[in-house]
Specification:
It comes from Alicycliphilus denitrificans. This is Alkaline phosphatase. It is a single chain. The chain contains nine helices and 24 strands. The protein is α+β, with helices and mostly antiparallel strands and 527 residues long. The chain has a seven-stranded mixed β-sheet, covered by helices on one side. Strands 12-13-15-17-19-18-20 form a seven-stranded mixed β-sheet, with helices on one face. A hairpin with a 2-residue loop joins strand 23 and strand 24. Helix 4 runs parallel beside helix 6 and helix 7 runs parallel beside helix 8. The chain starts with a helix and ends with a strand.
Length: 527
């Protein structure tokens, strides 16, 4: 059976031949109308960044042929959009036009305003006679509203070859209010030559240009289960490393900076083009950075601090600039590991986060302060004595600064959500040495497994790690899936959802474990 991308290319080739024949027989206006009979919304629709009065709607238009430079695809296209109370669009509440620019791959980011807070809506796009799939989205509650329930899916890491996206089908069936995607939306690698044990392969090369990154997103977004998950609820997204290059750190990637920095710029632009983000995310028109750390309010129930742990971090300890992947080191052989000047988030983001958490602590009106970030936060000591350099463990001074801030001005409840490691971890976040008072728990942590990416370790090794880390309550590897959180004013419940067979596109799912955090009592408890 051909892959979705192969089928998409085949459809495009057939369409290209038809359009070429029509172009020799029809007037220009008639040819353009016929050309739009293909599905320009082949990458689906999405929404995100919910506010009490609005939301961002996204799509990207696909031409009949990706290389088509003929009219109308050489220039801007006008897309119509509608927002309605109902899926049949009998009660349209907002509508308008948006311009899809070729310089942004004909992507569309509509910032809808004037909606009612705490409401579900339906939306769609139209181009000529083509109509997109219908998406479902919702607005955040009013600032002073205390919602009685918020259901959140958190997920990360969806390498195409390692598994089908059945997890997204089940996540959509769970009917979340919000999806938090925590990084590694795409993987930049070419498919391995040995396809044994893989769910599927692709023919894309390691990205070298903006066009390559755009094609990589088109590959991932061709998956129907991922499209359905985008269409079922608003998303809040951040990135990790594979959206650009494995283990990159701020300005540091592999190879010469003259080649690396333009590659990073291209990758960042492609990320913006394919995500439901606001225009204010852009730091500049030249894509020299994206403003991804931000706060979102869910009334008084929850406040989300969304972090960016890639763009501003210092180079991993004892890694040479321009060198290969980050690894693990022995602390005694790597003095830079404990350098107090090194930052995981960058100093400006550190101060922004500490100020936001201090405000949560002062106001006390926010029931749950949520840190949506990339990776495992709690310490993970290895029996070998080695220490990871790419995670928070590689920046222990930065983690200690954040823990001290939590200890000194503790929000009502703090929960950290993470991904990256392709394993499920549930942890107490302990106060650091020197924080004062008796040893205590500062926060709760749920670090999720991958949607499809392999773990790269064994359960025996993970069990050995857990035995020497008493704050780790659960550690499981090689179970793909996502986390499902039900949040109320008095209780946070997380279910770790796992897929039985990642090589089966129709796989069922099950609950691996369930933990709860009570209001005012930090630390997860089995539920």
């Amino acid at each position: 059976m051909p892959t979705p991308l192969a089928a998409m290319h085949r459809r495009r080739l057939l369409q290209q031949a038809a359009w070429a024949a029509m172009a020799t027989q029809l007037p220009r206006w008639a040819w353009a109308r016929q050309a739009l009979r293909h599905d320009p919304f082949g990458l689906g629709v999405a929404s995100g960044e919910p506010l009490p009065g609005g939301v961002v709607l996204w799509t990207r238009l696909l031409p009949p042929d990706p290389a088509d430079a003929a009219a109308p695809w050489a220039g801007p296209l006008t897309v119509r959009w509608e927002v309605a109370d109902d899926a049949q669009f009998r009660r349209i509440v907002q509508h308008g036009n948006a311009t899809a620019l070729p310089g942004l791959a004909h992507s569309v980011h509509v910032e809808v305003a004037g909606l009612q807070p705490g409401r579900w809506y339906h939306y769609r796009f139209m181009l000529g006679d083509a109509v997109s799939a219908v998406g479902r989205t919702r607005t955040a509650p009013a600032p002073q509203a205390l919602e009685q329930r918020l259901r959140v899916v958190y997920a990360s890491c969806q390498r195409w070859e390692h598994g089908y996206y059945a997890a997204w089908r089940h996540a959509c069936a769970d009917q979340p209010d919000l999806v938090l995607f925590l990084g590694d939306y795409i993987y930049e690698y070419a498919s391995p030559k040995d396809a044994s044990g893989l769910a599927r392969t692709h023919g894309l090369r390691l990205p070298r240009s903006l066009a390559d990154y755009r094609e990589r997103y088109a590959l991932h977004k061709s998956d129907p289960d991922l499209q359905a998950a985008h269409a079922c609820a608003p998303w809040v997204v951040t990135w990790d490393d594979h959206e650009v290059q494995n283990d990159y750190a701020g300005d540091h990637g592999r190879g010469d900076a003259a080649e690396w920095l333009p590659l990073r710029t291209a990758a960042w632009q492609a990320f913006y083009e394919h995500m439901p983000l606001r225009a204010s995310t852009l730091n500049s028109s030249a894509f020299q950075g994206l403003q991804l750390y931000r706060r979102l309010h869910w009334g008084r129930l929850a406040r989300l601090h969304v972090l960016d742990a890639r763009q501003y971090r210092d180079l991993q300890a004892c890694r040479k600039p321009g060198g290969g992947s980050a690894g693990a080191v022995r602390p005694e052989a790597c003095p830079a590991l404990t350098d107090p000047q090194r930052s995981f988030l960058g100093w400006q983001q550190e101060q922004w986060l500490q100020a936001g958490l201090a405000q949560d602590a002062r106001e006390r009106a926010t029931h749950w302060s949520v840190l949506a970030q990339q990776t495992l936060f709690a310490p993970r000591h290895y029996p070998s004595g080695l220490q990871s350099t790419d995670s928070w463990d590689g920046y222990p001074a930065a983690r200690e600064r954040l823990c001290h801030a939590l200890a000194q001005q503790a929000p009502r409840n703090t929960v950290l959500l993470g991904g990256d490691i392709h394993q499920n971890y549930v942890c107490n976040v302990p106060a650091p040495p020197g924080a004062g008072g008796a040893p205590r728990i500062l926060a709760s942590e749920f670090c999720g497994t991958s949607i499809s990416s392999r773990a790269g370790t064994t359960q025996d090794k993970v069990d050995a790690i857990r035995r020497i880390n008493p704050h780790v309550l659960l550690a499981r590897c090689d179970e793909r899936g996502y986390g499902l959180c039900d949040i109320t004013p008095t209780l946070w419940t997380t279910r770790l959802r796992a897929i039985r067979d990642p090589l089966d596109a129709g796989s069922d799912a099950y609950t691996l474990a369930r933990f709860a955090v009570e209001d005012g009592r930090p630390g997860p408890q089995p539920a």
